[in-house]
Structures are given as structure tokens and as C-alpha cells.
């Protein structure tokens, strides 16, 4: 299967999960990651708002806030095409919808966090394989935005892909720009490379 075929197949799969399965997955992911991140204090953590059958993040966002972490969300860069910015997201932050119909914070430059100052960055993904290869929605946003950090000796942020178990495939055909992940969390497991 090529990248487009895998994308189509896995997007269908995750969109066909029932509400109950989605809810259970979201709850389990929350418990998994709260346990995994328990040594962090007042961390800056980038997440995303759920779209297209992706693993739910609302519960995790609420828990992280309760634990005094700061939550950031991606905002599509207003003029650097294909890049993301990460903006602070609080309970009542003004929101707007981007061109894909995904909620994102209304751009406020004073609340943007440079990537190297984030402690943890969670990426959405469509499919992953046993080697940590990641396939996204096809915009190249995360690959492009993180490319600069991948080239240098990279300490921060820790990048963690989030996915349902059903998004694991035998093999993701890779491209030169793809950034393999060192950690993918599902509701059930943590895959580390
Ligand atoms: N929840 C979430 N937020 C995210 C991402 C994501 O994958 N998930 N992104 C990760 O990069 C960025 C947005 N990238 C996206 C790229 C394509 C489509 C999408 O639905 N594409 C349609 C075609 C839409 C069109 O061109 O008008 C499709 O493939 O059906 C959505 C998001 C930033 N925010
Ligand atoms: N580092 C980069 N520099 C320039 N272009 C890039 C880079 N990374 C990806 N692209 C471009 O973005 C397009 C989409 O890439 P790809 O199919 O890998 O996206 P994706 O990983 O599925 O999406 P996303 O990262 O947004 O979840 C490709 O055509 C590629 O040319």
C-alpha cells in the first residue's frame, strides 16, 4: 500500500470507532500519560484538539491543567506556509476554526511558545509502524515545523505521537523528510525506540 492508500484505510478505521470505544480510549490514554509524565512539574505541553476520529485529548488536557502544566495548541502559521505555531490554551482562550475546520486558538503573538521551550509535544498521526515511522494527514505541518530540531542535537521537546491501536500498520513507506518518532503512546501501550 502506498501512503495515500494507508491514509484512506486508517482514517476510515478510526472514524468507525464507536462513541463508547472513543471514550474508553480517551480515558485510558489519560491514565497512561498521567502515569508516564508524573515526574514533570509545571511543564509546557503541546497537544492538539481531536479531529477526524483521532484519539481524544480533552480529558488529558483537563488533567494536565489540573496538575499545573501549561497546555499549548497548534495554530497554522499565518504567513509561513506549512508551518505550525504553538499557542497557550487556557480554559477561556478565544478560538477560531482553521481552513480544515479544526478549532485553534485565535492568534495572539504574546502567547506563542518557541518550540525549544516546550517540554513535551504531542503529535497527531494517521498511521504508524513498528519502527516508529509516522504518517500524518498529508499537510507536512509537523515534519516541516520540527525539521530544524531534528537536525541538531535534540533534547527538548520530547515528541510523543498519539494514536489508537488500530492505527498501527505493518509498514509506513517513508520519505526523506519524515521524522521517525521515539515514542508513540496509545491507550494501551507506550512504544519506545
Ligand atoms: N487534530 C489535528 N490538528 C492538527 C493536525 C492534525 O493532524 N490533527 N495537523 C497536522 O498536520 C495540522 C492540520 N493538518 C491537516 C491537514 C489536512 C487535513 C484534512 O482534513 N485534509 C483533507 C483535505 C482538506 C482540504 O484540502 O481542504 C483530507 O485529506 O480529507 C486536516 C488537517 C494542524 N492541526
Ligand atoms: N521538512 C520539510 N521541508 C519541506 N517540505 C516538507 C517537509 N516535510 C514535509 N514536507 C512536504 O509536505 C508534504 C506532505 O508531507 P507528508 O505526506 O509527510 O505529511 P504528513 O506527515 O502526512 O503530515 P503532518 O506532518 O502534517 O501530519 C510533502 O509533499 C512534503 O514535500
What does this entry look like structurally?
It comes from Pseudoalteromonas ulvae. It is a single chain. The protein has 193 residues and is α/β, with parallel strands linked by helices. It has a single domain, classed as Rossmann fold (3-Layer(aba) Sandwich), CATH 3.40.50.10420. A seven-stranded mixed beta sheet has the order 3-2-1-6-9-10-11. A two-stranded antiparallel sheet has the order 4-5. Strands 7-8 form a two-stranded antiparallel sheet. A hairpin with a 5-residue loop joins strand 4 and strand 5. The longest helix has 18 residues. The two termini are 24 Å apart. The mean pLDDT is 96. The protein binds the ligand Nc1nc2c(c(=O)[nH]1)N(C=O)[C@@H](CNc1ccc(C(=O)N[C@@H](CCC(=O)O)C(=O)O)cc1)CN2 and adenosine-5'-triphosphate. Ligand FFO binds next to helix 4.
- State the CATH topology: Rossmann fold
CATH superfamily: NagB/RpiA/CoA transferase-like
The total of helices stands at 4
What helical percentage do the residues reach?
25-40%
Q: Rg from C-alpha positions?
A: 16 Å
The CATH class is identified as Alpha Beta
The main sheet comes to: 7 strands, mixed
What is the domain tally? 1
Largest sheet: spatial strand order: 3-2-1-6-9-10-11
Q: Which molecules are bound besides the chains?
A: the ligand Nc1nc2c(c(=O)[nH]1)N(C=O)[C@@H](CNc1ccc(C(=O)N[C@@H](CCC(=O)O)C(=O)O)cc1)CN2, adenosine-5'-triphosphate
Q: Look at the helices and sheets and give the structural class.
A: alpha/beta
State the shape: globular
Amino acid at each position: 500500500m502506498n501512503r495515500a492508500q494507508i491514509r484512506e484505510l486508517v482514517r476510515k478505521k478510526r472514524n468507525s470507532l464507536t462513541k463508547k470505544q472513543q471514550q474508553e480510549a480517551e480515558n485510558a490514554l489519560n491514565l497512561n500519560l498521567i502515569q508516564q509524565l508524573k515526574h514533570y512539574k509545571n511543564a509546557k505541553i503541546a497537544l492538539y484538539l481531536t479531529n477526524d476520529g483521532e484519539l481524544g485529548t480533552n480529558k488529558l488536557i483537563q488533567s494536565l491543567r489540573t496538575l499545573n502544566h501549561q497546555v499549548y495548541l497548534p495554530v497554522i502559521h499565518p504567513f509561513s506556509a506549512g508551518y505550525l505555531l504553538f499557542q497557550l490554551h487556557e480554559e477561556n482562550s478565544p478560538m477560531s476554526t482553521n481552513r480544515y475546520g479544526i478549532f485553534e486558538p485565535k492568534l495572539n503573538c504574546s502567547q506563542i511558545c518557541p518550540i525549544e521551550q516546550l517540554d513535551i509535544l504531542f503529535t497527531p498521526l494517521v498511521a504508524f509502524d513498528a519502527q516508529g515511522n509516522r504518517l500524518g494527514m498529508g499537510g507536512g505541518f509537523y515534519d516541516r515545523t520540527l525539521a530544524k530540531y531534528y537536525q541538531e542535537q535534540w533534547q527538548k521537546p520530547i515528541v510523543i505521537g498519539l494514536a489508537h491501536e488500530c492505527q498501527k500498520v505493518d509498514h509506513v513507506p517513508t520519505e526523506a523528510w519524515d521524522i521517525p518518532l521515539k515514542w508513540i503512546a496509545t491507550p494501551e501501550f507506550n512504544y519506545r525506540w
